[in-house]
Amino acid sequence: MTKPPLTLYLAAPRGFCAGVDRAIKIVEMALKKWGAPVYVRHEIVHNKYVVDGLRELGAVFVEELDECPPDRPVIFSAHGVPKAVPAEAARREMVFVDATCPLVSKVHIEAERHHENGLQIVMIGHTGHPETIGTMGQLPEGEVLLVETEADVAGLEVRDPERLAFVTQTTLSVDDTAGIVRALTARFPKIVGPHKEDICYATTNRQESVKAMAGRIDAMLVVGAPNSSNSRRLVEVAERAGCSYAQLVQRATDIDWRALEGIRSIGITAGASAPEVLVNEVVDALKARYDVTVEMVETARENVEFKVPRVLREPA
Ligand code: 2E7
Ligand code: F3S
User: Fold this and answer.
1) Per the omega criterion (within 30 degrees of 0), is the bond before 13 cis?
2) Is residue 11 part of a domain?
3) Tens digits of per-residue pLDDT, 191-203?
């Protein structure tokens, strides 16, 4: 039987960012240095395949520090942790390595600086997400107010509208965040913040390339996990940019083939925590059913790299 033709637009950049690459390396290097088990507080990055692979090597994933024995090393996930977490690890005299993405640490420092300048902070982020919890947890209770939507801005009760700053989660929708920042500056003209927001280069670039292809595809598959904020944003971006069907898939077995019936073109991207092997798996599944022509949609080139912490580097 002849296969139907399908043009497959492959987004670039897609998949792993520099922060994810570094965080995974930190776990691998810790396992080499200290042997198993090494504890990891929260999924190192939001991807089951990555987490399962590291578990196989001897990593033990927990949600809270009190689940770790005091005599084994613990690694904090790429999303960042409240200040109380390393403080408690130090109190228990634990060996700990912080795999927080440097671009998240930068936001933590930004928040602290505003606080030292006497400003109350508004964080734009998603309730309950570990990055939001970590960033808010850099400062005492009540010093960081969370908003998720433009509507939340109207309901904000601040200490002093003249003394405010804002920070953001790094994986938000660029367009939604611009709207929230506009609402904040309209209501609080004196509010200070970053030039635009704190969304990272990887989030911005992945959303851009999805926008570039969304208008010419019948469907979009985003390889990523349901708890991955940046991956979920890519599905929304595709839909909003005019793609009538977008699905988040953890791997090829998740593909809803009935929903794809009759398509002639498809876009594929991957969140910052999704490994390329899973993209290849999805591409191969499509090739098994369609006569595929691959086209790249490259909207940026990335050359960002972050060093692993000194304690884990091999001696020169
Ligand atoms: C850390 C940060 O693990 P992810 O899916 O995380 P999100 O925040 O998107 O749920 O992706 C990598 C990553 C992104 N941002 C890790 Cl702060
Ligand atoms: Fe860091 Fe952005 Fe990746 S904050 S972990 S570079 S998605």
Assistant:
1) yes
2) yes
3) 999 999 999 999 9
